[in-house]
Amino acid sequence: MVAAIETRDLRKRYGDVRALDGVSLTVPEGSFFGLLGPNGAGKTTFINVLVGLVERTGGDAAVFGHDVERDYRQARDCIGLAPQEFNVDRFFPIREVLEHKAGYHGIPADEARERADEVLKQVGIYGKRDTRFDWLSGGMKRRFLLARALITDPDLLVLDEPTAGVDVQLRHDLWDLITDLNEAGTTILLTTHYIEEAERLCDEVAILDSGRVVEVASPDELMDRGTDTITVTFRDPPSSVPDVAAGNGHVESVDLDDGRLVVTARQGGLLAPDLVRELDRGGHEIVDLDVSRTSLEEVFVEMTNGQESTGGSR
Amino acid sequence: MSVLPVGFKTLTRREILRFLRRPKNTFVPPLVTNVLYFSVFGVILGQRINEINGVPYVLFILPGLVVLGAISNAFENASFSIFHGRWNEYIDEALTSPLSYTQMALAYVVAGATRGLFVGVLIAIVGAAFTSVGAARPLYLVAFGLVVTLLFSGIGIVGGLWADDWDDLTMMNQFIVRPLVFFGGVFYSIAELPATLRAVSLLNPMVYMVNGVRYGFVGQAEVDPHLSLLVLSGLTVAVVALDVALFRRGYGLTE
Lengths: 314, 255
Ligand SMILES: Nc1ncnc2c1ncn2[C@@H]1O[C@H](COP(=O)(O)OP(=O)(O)O)[C@@H](O)[C@H]1O
Ligand SMILES: [Mg+2]
Known about the structure:
By secondary structure, chain A is an alpha/beta fold. Chain A has helices at residues 43-51, 72-78, 94-104, 109-122, 138-150, 168-183, 195-201, 219-225, 268-281, 296-310, and strands at 5-14, 17-27, 32-36, 58-63, 66-67, 79-82, 156-160, 187-192, 204-209, 212-217, 227-234, 251-257, 260-266, 286-292.
């Protein structure tokens, strides 16, 4: 099966800045793929190479097997893009803007009109159909960008920071909508710097930093690499740190904090039962146990900072 | 119509609707200006100016005013629309679609030329209120009308892609279109110029455009209309080819 997106050693320079510094990524068809990275990592540049707004300086990029330059028309026809910045026609009411976009993709006028109404309803701004984009509220503008991306019924939906600066309601609406689309078969590429979003939605994430891919993994795999914290509260606080043999090798630290035992370890969830059994056998009566998983955010910060501090990114 | 691709038709239609829906910006200014031109130059001054080659002065300047309005509107439409779309980045809507580069460029060329033709017709109608005017050579009139508006729409695209800010657009109008017009034989007959100025005038493409259109209206011209048509057509093809090449290269459009 051909990948939705396949890039090999993709490069883009702006003068001295290497916005993309050899990006090789495969986004499988039907996946929900996250592109994570701090500001300036190159996420938008990556997307813009796919749709033809940025000209690559090296490497290959193909969408469903169509090279983004040689077969630009086929490649672009597969993609629906909700960009980070507002770039909407200001001369026409939003319904007409949608009809035009559909027309550019070869959808005949009657069908374009039907689809425009459909997607406006889908994102919940049908009531505003005769308004121009400038007069929409911030949240509605975001909704409109999604509608415009959906009007062509794309095989690959690309969302560049779709929830930046939107309220909780809209964020959840959006999550539901794109989850449904993905379940119906649409491949989704989502860039975000909200880690929680990626954690919730994505099957697979790539972490980008300074134009390079630092890691590609599932959110769970990534979190397994982070350290979890297990906090045990005893009926009678021990005076010294009990011996802990469980989870040998996974444990990173064992401390007493205000009478509670604090263990940090990789894959803490797996270690917890052994730890409890061991402490119980040692005669400690446990009244409370808390396992707090590392957040993807922490893993992410560790990975991207690590890159910077070693200076390995340039 | 249905032989044309939907994408091309849609972009062309969008571009034409854009100016049709804002008549205050697109049709009222040339209407007002030309009523003034015809009143002042044609009627008030015209009574003191002799007929030129047997043509009353007001009728003599009519083709020039039509050309002036047509080409400056064709130029302005193409350059403004492209630049405005770049400035607000909504030109991305077309750029990220499966339109071919040729279709994109042609859609803008055709829409700009359409506006030029509309304005040209409008000016001819205004002129008809001041003097009796017909089309002595209708086919030539149509041919020259098409070719000059296509040419200047094509040039407008280059301008719209090249401009970095709004001042650049104003500047192009001031320094490219205006001088061509005033030395292009709109208001006087080039036969009346001293020999050197006359020779220089013949390098001005505007002279050929005005004379071609004048041939269409009154049936006489100071330069050979066939040569004019040939040269102007050649220029138009070259400029439109340049437009397509610039779109393909992403000049002013991609990073
Ligand atoms: N048009 C441009 N000219 C110069 N540098 C640019 C341009 N666009 C982006 N960059 C630079 O490229 C890098 C990547 O930017 P971008 O792709 O927008 O990152 P992200 O979307 O991950 O925040 C940044 O260093 C940014 O400053
Ligand atoms: Mg970005």
